[in-house]
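To whoever is on call:

I kicked off a structure prediction for a single chain this morning and the downstream step that reads the tokens threw a length-mismatch warning. I double-checked the sequence; it's 258 residues and nothing unusual in it as far as I can see. Pasting both halves so you can look.
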Amino acid sequence: MALSKLVKARKSELIVTPVHEAWLAQNSNVELRDEVADFVRNELLAKQRKRSQTWSSSSLGYCERKHVYQYMGAAKERQPDSDLANIFIHGTWTHLKWQAMGFMATWLGQAEVPCAIPELGYTGTIDGILADGETGWELKSINERGFKFVLQDGIKLEHKRQITGYMLATGLRRWSVIYEEKNTQEYKEFVYEYDETLADSVRDELARLNQHVATRTLPVMLPDCAEKKNSTYKQCAYRDLCATDRWPGPTLTIRRKS
């Protein structure tokens, strides 16, 4: 970043950017402290979190029907293709890059922090909590088109919903949200504050999901999926099961008196 931009960042109300840019200005090659290198190694060796029997924060605001299938542990009909798998792996390394830099620059206090709302069956893993202990941190790796969108319109609604879930689980009411453009590594930070209206909407969504499980009913199929079009349908791991309208759990046996 040019000196003029660094001065501007320091005068802004952003939380991470001024500290991060000052660190980058002095560190073009990363030499990790032992404890930071251990964190990276442990994350690479960690097993994936079990997604069944829990409402995942990262799925809030997306297809509720798919979320129910995931909760019920329905067998996936297809795995990600090589392009999508590459995107997932890129996202993993991008998060580790930022988390390692955050620890080295001392603005990050914790990373990969689990959270939960047991009474709602909700769990999540927070990208990080800042060193002040009072601010959450979320990173999103995004393509050029998506990056242009957030530059114009700010944090995406689905990401606000995800973060609101974290807020409800932790009590933290302020979040630093960073979007990084995949091609250029240009990034933009936003500060998001707790919104009670959106929090009520997230609570309602979790209540609906729990009601569907309790009554063994499925949420309505998305219109585009009903017409078998767009990437949401094409990339869905449950699209064939979804078309059957069949409950993903075991069939109940009704015993009658003889």
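Update from on-call: the warning came from a stale cache, not from the record. Cleared it. Sanity check on the structure: The chain has one domain: 3-244.
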